[in-house]
Amino acid sequence: MDEVFKALADPSRRALLDSLNARNGQTLRELCAGLDMARQSVSKHLAVLEEAGLVTTVRQGREKLHYLNAAPVHEIAHRWINQFDRARVQALADLKLALEDTAMDTATEAPTFVYTTYIRTTPKKLWQALTEPAFTRRYWETEFTTDWAAGSPMTWDNHGVVIADPEQVVLESDPYSTLSYTWHSVTPELAKRFDWDEETLAKLSGEARSKVTFTIEEEEAQIVKLTVVHDGFEPGSKFAEMVSHGWPSVIASLKTLLETGEPLGTDVA
After folding, report:
1. Is the pLDDT of residue 140 over 90?
2. What per-residue confidence (pLDDT) applies to 44?
3. Which residues contact 206 (CB under 8 A, 6 or more apart)?
4. pLDDT score, position 8
5. Of 28, 91, 126, 229, which has the fewest Cβ atoms less than 10 A away?
6. Phi then psi dihedrals of residue 103, to 5 deg
7. Which whole-number Å values give the CA distances from 159 to 78, 206, 207, in the listed order?
8. pTM for the model
């Protein structure tokens, strides 16, 4: 975590994070326009933030969009929080909350959740953890019934609630590299499982179906970079708000399971 603290120590890099905090998913040109910094300086600072894992990027056509990434601070909170005194704990908690709350775009834009973490594992093991019930039920309490071929339907067993819908499908499946599928439907049984009121159920049921994409990249031997992009939401999406809080816990539990053999507790739709 040395790189994280070093990256945060520079006021210019904090200014870049503030800019992304205000509006996530910016291009280099947009970041330069919003700050009194030369393009070369912004590029160098972004490289440091990316190296520390505090910023992650996603290609959209010819553009590269920059997003805040909560993973490093989330991992500090889970693994080493007891080593810090009260003041430092509060500072980390504030930063963690800011990063997670702004992993989505503003309510006036179509939100996108982007989260990147590094896991001490192999691409094959990570793929198994994303697809095989023996793994998914341990860190997510969720299982999928599908053959994982592009276009195939998926039945979800989400925290004990079975959800079948013809629009729940695998979108892309390239073993050990890329996995993408549409998100599950919302049912009264699922609402009961998570104690949603009727208003929440109605709002979620009326939203367009979103999708999630996992990208797996081997960085070096036994170190894999996992990037999760959840998009397809409408502006002001309730589901977008929910997954922005849920995904960090799910991914942290996945990472812990692969690295230690034991998952973290999670209860995410």
Report:
1. yes
2. 92
3. none
4. 85
5. 91
6. -70, -10
7. 23, 22, 21
8. 0.73
